[in-house]
Amino acid sequence: MENKSYDAIVIGGGPGGYVAAIRLGQLKQKTLVVEKAHMGGVCLNWGCIPSKALISATKLVSSMRHAEAIGIVAKDLSVDVKKMQEWKNGIVKKLTGGVQSLVKGSGADIIFGTATLKGNKLVEVKDPEGKTTIYEAKKGIVVATGAHPIQLPGFAIDGKTVITAEHAVSLNEVPKTLVLIGGGVIGLELGMVYQTLGAKVIVVEMMEQLLPGVDPDLVKVVEQQFIKNGGEVFYGAKAKECKVKAGKAVVSIEHGGSTKTLEADKVLVAVGFRPNTEGLGLENAGVTLDKRGHISVNARLESNVAGVFAIGDVAGPPYLAHKASKEGEIAAEVIAGKKTIRDWRAMPAAIFTDPEIATVGLSETAAKAQNKKITLGKFPFAVSGRAMAVRETNGFIKVIVDADNGEVLGVGIVGPEASDLISEAALAIEMCAYAEDVALTVHPHPTLGEGMMEAFKHAVGEAIHVKNK
Q1: Which of 19, 339, 382, 385 sits at a 20 to 30 Å CA gap from 32?
Q2: Is the Cβ–Cβ distance between 90 and 6 less than 8 Å?
Q3: How many angstroms separate the Cα of 240 from the Cα of each of 181, 231, 255, 264?
């Protein structure tokens, strides 16, 4: 007979939930994972992984198209988008299957169905056939249900012409014209994929810059590349409605005091996400939500109700898979009785545009807003021998240092492999490093990473390959 009592129940099998389950298993806690759709969540199924696979593929396409300068001529280069999608789907299948094996290998059970809290220790699960079963969580329930794309009034998602990111990562044909409603991370990442494949991409952005909230100094480099590649941006614009006729879309926007219409083959609505808290029965347990619908949690990831935890997107921004995973580990350790709290000093973030952007810690703007006296260091990839060798000289590394004591406050990178380079900066902040610590650390040559050393040398006035202030 099935044992319906567990130490912990995790609701959601995404990058937060599955990590929590694995860590619980490592800590010898009997665990059940309830997943509504697919293990791996948004990240593995239609977010982080499939989008980055497409970005990698199209980056190769772009590189081959511009290889004549180094003596490589790819005549009659063509792209089979359908085959590219099959390759991407293979990666997704392998990873989601791997996640399921890892969870089961840790000793946790997995069931597919819809979970509803019936208190702070009971979870009702309705399986795909409609059968309901009550499970007990003796030590804790972890809500890891993620978030979903915001629906924009006047833009009915049909999955064919008016789409979300979930549909955009699976297009078998390149649209001639793609309109992005929202110039944020998801829209711009996917927009630049299809721009490389030949689409005319138009962005409708309410704010006055692409990638709102990101250091404008970094964004400017991406914006210039996007426009150079044929992109068009309407800043300070409001998307009013979209009408679809015979598979074509007509988008009405307010811009510069007048109404304009844009015609497109596809319209990608990417204006943000909302937490998945509805229908979970949180009210049955008395769980408190914030104004945006996130579950309010403390440093131990526990809600106002003892034994009910929340991690990842459902517990609030930033909406990052690695943040969810870290919180999954913390919640698991707390449930297992360890004295663990959420205590990171900075959370890195990466944006896979062309070129990439990565940040950690305070930006220049944020540091100044906190009235901090700062010193900046900068190293342009244009003078990097390795960047020249890989033909990616666009962008720079920018470091923000406390002018009074030399402490590393933040780093922003725009350029090649920014997403990989930022980890050193995250470690520097986590270890309370000073600018001289990084500047005096010998970095291998020729690498992109030595740019980090040079940027910090620039901050302390000892740069070798760029002029000091």
Answers
A1: 339
A2: no
A3: 10, 21, 10, 15
Q: Is the pLDDT of residue 2 over 60?
A: no
pTM, full prediction: 0.95
From the candidates 66, 148, 445, 458, which is the catalytic residue? Answer: 445
181, β-bridge pairs = 204, 269
Say if CB 55 and CB 67 are below 8 A apart: no
Q: What is the largest CA-CA distance in the chain?
A: 74
Q: If DSSP codes are grouped into helix, strand and coil, which group holds residue 374?
A: strand
Buried/exposed 205-239: b ≥16 CB within 10 Å, e otherwise: bbeebbbeebbebbbebbbebbeeeebebbeebeb
pLDDT in tens, 427-460: 999 999 999 999 999 999 999 999 999 999 999 9
Nearest partner of 150 among 279, 315, 269, 46, judged by Cα: 269
Distance CA 287, CA 116 (A): 13
Please identify which residue in the block is written with the tokens 């409605």. Answer: 241
Q: What is the average pLDDT score of the chain?
A: 96
Please tell me whether the peptide bond between 318 and the residue prior to it is cis, using omega within 30 degrees of 0: yes
User: 29-58, pLDDT tens digit by residue?
Assistant: 999 999 999 999 999 998 899 999 999 999
CA dihedral angle for residue 101, residue 106, residue 108, residue 112, rounded to 10 degrees: -20
User: For residues 374-407, b (16+ Cβ closer than 10 Å) or e, as one string?
Assistant: bbbbbbbbeebebbeeeebbbbbbbbbbbeeebb
pLDDT of residue 3: 57
> Is residue 76 over pLDDT 90?
no
Distances from the Cα of 387 to the Cα of 61, 304, 418, 462, angstroms: 19, 50, 12, 21
Asked if residues 89 and 131 have their Cβ atoms less than 8 Å apart, the reply is: no
